[in-house]
Amino acid sequence: DGSNLPNITWIIGSNDISLEIIISNNKEPAYLTVFVLSLPKNINIRSILPSCRETEEYNVVKIVCDVDNPLLSGSP
């Protein structure tokens, strides 16, 4: 049942979770930057940002998000 697992563990079939991803750049401007999140195919995605798209390859769902272009130095 997962009751003895650390709080950072999420078990498939558990309640919904929300992810907040923060991308930062500490060097020179980054162009055409994307963020890719890969998840097992049996994970249901409820919603994604308009700047993201969902693709499927084999047994993996990928969420691909466009990041600011350019992503400037000091950008959180």
TrEMBL record:
- What SUPFAM superfamilies is this protein classified in? Integrin domains
The reply on keyword Magnesium is no
Q: Which Gene3D superfamilies match?
A: ntegrin, alpha v. Chain A, domain 3
The entry's keywords: Glycoprotein, Integrin, Membrane
Task: Tell me where in this chain the Integrin alpha second immunoglobulin-like domain is found.
Answer: 12-73
Location in the cell: Membrane
Report any one BP term from Gene Ontology.
Answer: integrin-mediated signaling pathway
Question: According to Swiss-Prot or TrEMBL, what is its membrane topology?
Answer: Single-pass type I membrane protein
- Where it mainly occurs, coarsely classed, is membrane
- Show the GO cellular component annotation of the record: membrane
Per the record's keyword annotation, is Membrane included, yes or no?
yes
Q: Which domain of life is it from?
A: Eukaryota
Output this protein's name. Answer: Integrin alpha second immunoglobulin-like domain-containing protein
Q: Which organism is it from?
A: Bracon brevicornis
